[in-house]
Amino acid sequence: MTTKVFSLKLSDVKWLWLASFLIGLVLDTMLMISADIHNAPSLTLLILIFWTTQIFEHTHLFSAFILGLLFDAILASPLGAHALLFVLITFMMLRIRQSFKAFPVWQQSMMIVIYYAIFQALSWLLLQPALSGAGWTFYVLEPVFAGLLWPVITMTLARFTQKLLFH
After folding, report:
1. How many CB atoms are closer than 10 A to CB 68?
2. What residues of the chain score a pLDDT lower than 70?
3. Is residue 8 situated within a structural domain?
4. What is the pLDDT of residues 25-57, one digit of tens each?
5. Considering the domain boundaries, does residue 129 fall inside one?
6. What pLDDT was estimated at residue 145?
7. Is residue 100 domain-resident?
8. Is 36 helix (H, G, I), strand (E, B) or coil?
9. I need a surface site. Which of 20, 25, 71, 160 has the fewest CB within 10 A?
10. Which residues are paired to 148 by β-bridges?
11. Alpha-carbon Rg of the chain, whole angstroms?
């Protein structure tokens, strides 16, 4: 059975699901606070998109909301801003998740670039970051970085999922 038509159940991968979100939040925190890299794509959002496309039995809107609130608390941004953005991007992904899952990885990366560009534009409207010079360039290129990171996240989480379920 191919992975393009295989739908996971949350009960089968709940610990991997929870651990991947926790790792995503920790890595996002490390990149943004410790390493002072403010223009790295949100790994938490990319992991949320991955699980949204893999587990069809849930809508993941509540988990998007909770992850957004945690993201707001970690970054000390206005409470609910990232929650709104995460829920909106998750809802948009829910609309196309079956066709998205059938796309090849390079085409999925292009869709991630589009969705992340929407995330960035709405984030800029809601949070209004102070950008100047190179900061603006990296802010605009962040969706491209997310698209380049998507195959790595997809293959890593798919490999862990297969090891968990089939070995």
Report:
1. 26
2. 1-7, 35-36, 38, 131-132, 167
3. no
4. 999 988 887 766 767 899 999 999 999 999 888
5. yes
6. 94
7. yes
8. coil
9. 160
10. none
11. 16
